[in-house]
């Protein structure tokens, strides 16, 4: 494709079909205050269970957003929700050199956004983050496929993989994948014949402990139903059960 000329729109109002460019209407449900649990975690569990029973494709898929300080630069990526407990939402990843690791070290806050198209629902979460203990991490890590555990050791996440060839310039046949595959091979040889592969010290779980959770149900004419749970009080919640907390629930304008 040639360079895009100034003021040229490559995409404009992409919705509907070729014969009807207007955005689709959301008609599959509604949400009222009386339908909500007093607690966001139980409400999320209800919606998540419904999403699974409604054949939503991988409802555990979630967009994790973080921001670096002092620059304020924001970055997002899709990950899998792996746990929900009375404190928050848990994902697992590399916490050494990845962009999100750098963000979290400078600014221990994050947001999550779930989108379930099949039921026309989304959930947003905002809050502080905390690392899981090695004991908690190991419980999940040991459940992973062997190849995924090997991959956790082999991948220096988000770091550049230079092409093979003189001075890293490449020979036209490799774009950097060869280095990754060599690292995987090296790790496979390191743990060959061993059933147990230890958890890398740079890998583990991260829990988003929410101050806010929003539940969104699509409605016609963009007049969506939105309800926000806000934690009452900003103190430390360690050791608290969900029933020990208080949450304010408010309807938001769409």
Describe this protein's structure:
It is a single chain. With 254 residues, the protein is of the alpha+beta class. Helices cover 21% and strands 27% of the residues. It has five helices and nine strands, in the order H-E-E-E-E-H-E-E-H-H-H-E-E-E. It has helices spanning 40-53, 99-106, 134-141, 146-154, 177-190, and strands spanning 61-67, 74-80, 83-84, 89-94, 109-116, 121-131, 203-217, 225-231, 247-252. Strands 1, 2, 3, 4, 5, 6, 7, 8 and 9 form a nine-stranded antiparallel sheet that branches. Strand 5 (109-116) and strand 6 (121-131) form a beta hairpin. Helix 4 packs across helix 5 (177-190). The longest helix has 14 residues, at 40-53. The protein is globular and about 55 Å long.
Helix/strand layout:
Elements: H1 40-53, E1 61-67, E2 74-80, E3 83-84, E4 89-94, H2 99-106, E5 109-116, E6 121-131, H3 134-141, H4 146-154, H5 177-190, E7 203-217, E8 225-231, E9 247-252
Antiparallel strand pairs: 1-2, 1-5, 3-4, 4-7, 5-6, 6-7, 7-8, 8-9
